Amino acid sequence: MLNDTTRTTTVLLAITAMAVVLAGPITAATYYVDTANADAADTNAGTETAPFKTIGQAAATAEAGDVVVVRAGHYDEVVTIARTGKKDRLITFRADPSRKARLKGFILKADYISIEGFEITNPADGADGIYAGQTHLETARTGCRMIGNFIHDLTGTAITSGTHAVVKDNLMRNVFRGVFVNSNTLVENNEVDTLVPVIIEQNGRMRPRKSQYAFFSGEDITFRGNHFHGSPMKDMASWGLDFFTTWDADILPPSRRILIENNRCFNATHASEPLAEQHKQSSHITYRNNLFVNTVYVGILCKQWSHITIENNTFINCGAYPIWFQKPRETEGSIVRNNLIAYWNHTPLPDHKEAESGIRVDDGLPEVDCDYNMFFGTKNRQYGPHDFTAEPRFVDPSKGDFRLKAGSPGIDAGTPVPGLNADLAGTPRPQGDGWDIGAYEHKPVPERKGND
Prior knowledge:
Blueprint: H1 4-23, E1 30-33, H2 55-59, E2 67-70, E3 73-74, E4 78-81, E5 91-95, E6 101-103, E7 105-108, E8 113-116, E9 119-120, E10 130-131, E11 145-147, E12 150-160, E13 166-168, E14 171-181, E15 186-188, E16 191-195, E17 199-202, E18 205-208, E19 211-216, E20 219-224, E21 227-229, E22 241-245, E23 256-261, E24 264-272, E25 283-288, E26 291-300, E27 306-311, E28 314-318, E29 321-325, H3 328-331, E30 335-337, E31 340-342, E32 359-361, E33 369-371, E34 374-376, E35 388-389, E36 394-396, E37 401-404
Parallel strand pairs: 1-2, 2-5, 3-6, 4-7, 5-8, 6-9, 7-10, 8-11, 9-12, 10-12, 11-13, 12-14, 13-15, 14-16, 14-19, 15-20, 16-21, 19-22, 20-23, 21-24, 22-24, 23-25, 24-26, 25-27, 26-28, 26-29, 27-30, 28-31, 29-32, 30-33, 31-34, 34-35
Antiparallel strand pairs: 17-18, 36-37
């Protein structure tokens, strides 16, 4: 006979099974939008044979788990999405074929939305590409994805991510700002090709408004494998253009646990100048395996951050101070190791009396854990006993190839870095007797045997 406990459990299981049967499986719909189809209409059912004419109609129809397939064509729309998906059932908007559906932008006022493979451009002043972010009036959206889009010719921001987002495999070209990123977001394998200045009046003068390839605000943000390049160096000294930056002011809180790794970055006024001067609470920012090339003023200058880790980066022509510590808080828990700092075919600004000063820790500051760095064409202040000066012997610097040739003094000259198991190109570390200096690990060519 069944005891009371067993009998109760059996009844509950039976009720649960019956509820599942009655409810049926969770189904998702696929809707189609095709402006080029002569029979398309927003009064249609949105099927493949009777598609909607506008993406906006699909956005007003789709529910959690649904997919909206948008066929090739020009859609004269800025699409606002207000119907929300769920964490495990996003609402997906997908261009098919990829980047053949062209529109003016997406404004996400809902969570868990995926935007995939669109071409986005808009000539209107201040127009953004995909916006899921934070304003003075509303909070950032969460759980959205922006994947494989081509966003170009905008005077606003190409992508504003919201929180817990994925921004991946997008191409952004001729935009004012690349990405504006919020907490718990991965920004990976994107390309930002040429930022375009927006001219504003300031103190009676016309000047370019400050901009960024990537602006971040929040916690637990990762930038990995991105390529930032193309912005013109002409007149950049008056611009104010960073690869990676933030500030803790207005509605923007302190930022923490920021990882910047395996990125290739060319042409800016600063490599990274995140500001934390208002609250002095931002902490734990890591730069590793990055290539920074051609910055006008400085490389990495984290104002009033703590726990700054800078390891195995390559800095080429990075202004007056490729790495600079100015305040005591910036030295707290900070590490600088295995970096390659070099100047190649470089002309400093006329007002820089000493334009190449390597790593600088201002006088009177606590010591920084700084060692195993390599310098060429710049001052070596010898903060660590293993810091040294030598010609790096790059593979082909005239073509932007700053890998190390065989025989480079940077090979095996670094110190092991826990958790750093590969270089910028994905080559495992170490390849020889020790870690190499800079972003690239030299991979020896196997010797040929016999008649091979």
